[in-house]
Amino acid sequence: MSDTPRKSSAIDLGSAIKSRLTSWDSIILVLTVLVLVVASFSVDNFGTSRNFTFMVLDLLPIILIALPMTMIIVTGEIDLSVASTLGLTSSLMGWLWNQGLSIETIIPLCVVIGAICGVVNGFLITGLGLPSLAVTIGTLALYRGLAFVVLGDGAVADFPWNYTGWVTGTIGGGAVPNDLILIVALALIFGIVQHATPFGRSLYAIGANAQAAHFSGIRVARTKFWLYVVSGAVAGLVGVLWTLRYSSARADNGSGLELAVVAAVLLGGVSIFGGKGSLPGVLAGVVLLTALQNALRLEDVSGQALNIVTGSLLVLSVLLPNITTAIRGHWRRRKVRQAAAAR
Amino acid sequence: MTTLSLNAPAKLFKTRELGIVLALALLVAYTAIDNPRFLSGQSIRDNLLNTAILAVMATGQAVVVITRNIDLSVGSVLGLSAFTVATMTSANPGLPMIVAILAGLTLGAVAGLVNGVLVRFGKVPALVVTLGTLYIFRGITYSWAGGSQVNADELPRHFLTFANDNLLGIPWLVLIALIVVGAASLMMRNYRVGRELYAMGSSPAAAELAGIKVARNLLGAFVLSGALAGLAGVLYAARFGTVDAAAGTGYELNVVAAVVVGGVAVFGGSGSVWGAALGALLLTVIGSALAVLDINQFWQQAIVGALIILAICADRLVAVRIARSLRKRDAHV
């Protein structure tokens, strides 16, 4: 957002470096480190390995769903149905388990179910050309409703302990949670695809100008379609992990998570209008959000009051870049005026 | 040309609203045949009272959506207003109803103003702002109320009977909803500001160039939506008597559903307040019909979702048809 008015002097290396350092990604990264450092010193138990494990468990659903969500928002679309897909997957997981299927069959099946939810979204959005915001508000209600149809307000809890134990366990009983392997692996894959492949570049082109991208040979509709399928599949996987973590399949699992994910992605510097943002920024955004909530919870701030923090961060993350741009524009105009007056 | 292009969409809206009325009639007829008690006075009354709260919120939401924005914070504003007003009247039992209503309206208007200022002057999309304030307003209610709740027996009698009292046989709640929908509809159809709001939704850039006071109108739309959500909070407290910090959680989905099902296009510029109110009525009747038909209550949310998607598809179909007919006519000229 900050580099748009600079385009005319793009060759100017000094200002390029300066704009890189003052970019939102860098600010959020510094802010995240700051919160982590301050919290470790001032909040009791924040820096313990036990708390680290808990934090990774809290991070997991947001960070995994944020990976495809970042790509979707970069193309200028949105997927609000992810948390409901998670809930539907969790419900079906419980139901299938009650039917006597083995857990080894259920887990891949659940990922497929999530992908099918994504196919429905993708078809409605790219096949019929409907606005993604409206469609995914619709499927948000639909998938959550179906989750309740499948399982009602009951719960299924007796999942095999070696699976539930793995999700909440640590590597060799140490400080590093097993889930961290999963997070790092997926983040690397998504990061490479988004930032080091032609496909990743095409996402930015679509977000900047879908029509221009189309005329330059990018298959816009097909790309978006597959992003929704991947988003659904990841939400399905998170549904499985969520169910195993709490050892409880429930229709209302993950309610409201879509807001936390969107908040984290926008906080990470991705523009809601598409075309801008990076995965490292988003990862920092997720860590910032989770660390802040974790620290406040340790300080006995109630869970629901934490909503104020999440909401304020969300609003600030979109507001601050605009304000800084406005201030910079003001200074630049002033400089130009002064230069003109001096001449 | 101008008269044609103005008339064609106007006629289509009529058919859109006719579609909802038809669906409603079919649903009521089917349910009444299965269980005639569905048409009893008490059942109709309950349906209307529940619709009233949703319709008041849908009216404000429709105005915001017509300007190509969205207000997702309405459920949280309802909660904040309901809890504030309930606490206020339980502390001062002598407070007349009108004061409670004005307090709810004012509180909601302030919340709406915050949304509007952030959207317009922060140059931030309404979706993000109201998603944020959805969290913030709900968080404020929770950190204030905690786990406590205001019970019906702590509220003064006149406050509770307000939901059941009536004027000439029409319950106050329904009357208020009718006034709100009627006034907003009049504003949107017959007054300059209403037409300007439509123009802003059709083409924000063109509206700005045409000299429409976009900032003022947009603030007005958000203040209206907030104020009506605040009013809905007062009605909610009066109707249900028991209010905790979670009041109205998830309502934003029903409100947006009502508006979209009622034929207001999500990309602004078209639709009507009456349509949104009819959408609210349809959603409420579906809810109670499912209960009467003895269908699993859990189907309700799935049906709401399916309805939203159907409505968007119908909307798209209408838009494609209009575009095609306009192209055809231009080709002949």
UniProtKB/TrEMBL annotation, chain A:
It holds the Pfam family BPD_transp_2. GO terms for cellular component: plasma membrane. GO terms for molecular function: transmembrane transporter activity. It is found in: Cell membrane. It is a multi-pass membrane protein. The chain crosses the membrane at residues 21-42, 54-73, 80-97, 103-125, 132-151, 171-193, 225-244, 256-274, 308-327. Keywords: Cell inner membrane, Cell membrane, Membrane, Transmembrane, Transmembrane helix, Transport. This is Autoinducer 2 import system permease protein LsrD. It comes from Paractinoplanes brasiliensis.
TrEMBL record, chain B:
One of its GO terms (cellular component) is plasma membrane. Its main location: membrane. It comes from the Bacteria. This is Autoinducer 2 import system permease protein LsrC. The chain crosses the membrane at residues 47-65, 72-91, 97-119, 126-147, 167-188, 218-238, 250-267, 274-293, 299-319. GO terms for molecular function: transmembrane transporter activity. It is found in: Cell membrane. Part of the ABC transporter complex LsrABCD involved in autoinducer 2 (AI-2) import. Probably responsible for the translocation of the substrate across the membrane. Pfam families: BPD_transp_2 (PF02653). InterPro entries: ABC_transp_permease (IPR001851). It is a multi-pass membrane protein. Keywords: Cell inner membrane, Cell membrane, Membrane, Transmembrane, Transmembrane helix, Transport. It comes from Paractinoplanes brasiliensis. The complex is composed of two ATP-binding proteins (LsrA), two transmembrane proteins (LsrC and LsrD) and a solute-binding protein (LsrB). PANTHER family: ABC TRANSPORTER PERMEASE PROTEIN YPHD-RELATED-RELATED, AUTOINDUCER 2 IMPORT SYSTEM PERMEASE PROTEIN LSRC.
